[in-house]
Specification:
30% strand; alpha+beta
Length: 395
């Protein structure tokens, strides 16, 4: 049995022996990842597959036998090497990184990876080439021209479709037309009920006119909280702005949105025909713009249906249309919207009196108060509100 002294001497050497491979120069024939040579090109260190090859290894001048048999040497020096050196396997943070070039910060977070840079640079190149695409150009060339009454009107020449389009008409002068953003033109008007600065715009191809800046008027849509005369009258007093009250007690969000125009209801007359006179039942049997709490019967409202002026009614069961004036029967073969005329209900002090029609309500400062009478229909309320906000405006 070896003595305890001998065992204590051998244990440190075992750690060195278990973590170190001694190899001969005959194994250096294959290609290596990295080689260190001296001034005379003698190989000192070679790296291959994460393993270092040393052509010679010594500790304090004492050579180690490459065959793995330790010769006579200063065992104290070997014990010092074993006791002060940590030998670890090539794994974890010490594992060989196959990346070509990587920059790390002090916490070993990757700041730059050459392989990733090369891979991503392909996408950057594509993005750059995309940015070089020919920018789109406004195809509309606007100009003004005197009409038969000597009033200046705006027209545009569509350079893509090679045609001229009339944009304005009427008794006011529309001047100084010019291109704006893509597909939009802007001009100045001297019309009586003017927009701020007299500025108007229209987007092609339909060229519907809108004030460039909202008209300085207040419009209220909603249920009884909006119809209440005190609310909008006080608001008109505080702001000094002319105000219109389109609120109606009992209306659901669907009824409000249908009256405002954002969520119109489509109907077909019985037999597919609006008669020459009298009322006609509409299908489907839905209250539409007259939908109040509980789908109860509601007062008839002025509207247009298939181009015919009349009154829309809901008796709690059936929807009807009654034309205002007798005339020729009109065929309606497809579902057609009921277009409610924007007529105020409750009067506003120093504002619009009840019974006032104002078609330009969508060009003003709008205030909405919805949902109290169909509060359980959360999705519908949100949908109606979003539609009302976006209705009438060209994005």
């Amino acid at each position: 049995m070896p003595s305890d002294i001998v065992v204590s001497k051998l244990i440190p050497l075992m750690a060195l022996s278990e973590t170190t491979t001694f190899r001969t120069m005959t194994e250096l024939n294959d290609e290596y990842d990295s080689v260190v040579v001296d001034s005379e090109y003698n190989i000192l260190i070679a790296l291959k597959n994460g393993l270092f090859d040393f052509c010679g290894l010594s500790v304090n001048g004492e050579s180690i036998n490459p065959a793995g048999i330790l010769g006579t040497m200063d065992k104290t020096n070997l014990e010092v090497l074993s006791g002060t050196t940590e030998f670890s396997s090539a794994s974890g943070e010490y594992e060989l990184n196959p990346a070509r070039y990587v920059i790390l910060d002090e916490d070993k977070n990757i700041q730059f990876d050459l392989d990733e840079y090369i891979q991503r640079s392909i996408g950057w190149q594509q993005a750059y080439l995309f940015s070089l695409q020919t920018p789109k150009v406004n195809p509309y060339a606007p100009f003004s021209q005197l009409d038969a009454s000597g009033k200046s009107q705006v027209r545009v020449y569509d350079t893509e479709n090679k045609k001229e389009i009339a944009v304005t008409s009427g008794s006011s002068n529309e001047t100084n037309p010019r291109p704006d953003i893509l597909n939009r033109i802007v001009w100045t008007s001297d019309r009586a009920d003017n927009a701020p600065g007299g500025l108007f715009y229209a987007d092609g191809p339909d060229f519907k006119e809108y004030p460039y800046i909202a008209r300085p008027k207040i419009v209220g849509w909603g249920h009884s909280f909006m119809e209440n005369g005190r609310f909008l009258s006080r608001l008109a007093q505080l702001t000094g702005l002319y105000t219109y009250n389109f609120g109606k007690s009992g209306l659901t969000s669907e009824g409000v949105a249908s009256r405002q125009g954002a969520a119109r209801t489509f109907y077909t007359p019985a037999g597919g025909v609006i008669p020459a006179s009298g009322a006609v039942t509409l299908s489907p049997a839905k209250p539409g713009p007259n939908r109040i709490f509980g789908n109860a019967a509601a007062t008839s409202i002025a509207c247009s249906f298939a181009g015919i002026d009349g009154m829309f009614g809901w008796d709690g069961t059936n929807a009807t249309f009654t034309r205002t004036a007798a005339g020729a029967a009109v065929t309606v073969s497809v579902p057609t919207p009921v277009i409610v005329y924007p007529i105020t209900g409750f009067s506003v002090t120093n504002g619009a009196p009840g019974g006032t029609r104002y078609d330009q309500h969508d060009e003003c400062i709008n205030i909405f108060w919805l949902g109290r009478n169909n509060i359980s229909e959360i999705d519908l309320i949100i949908s109606n509100a979003l539609a009302m906000v976006s209705w009438g405006f060209v994005e």
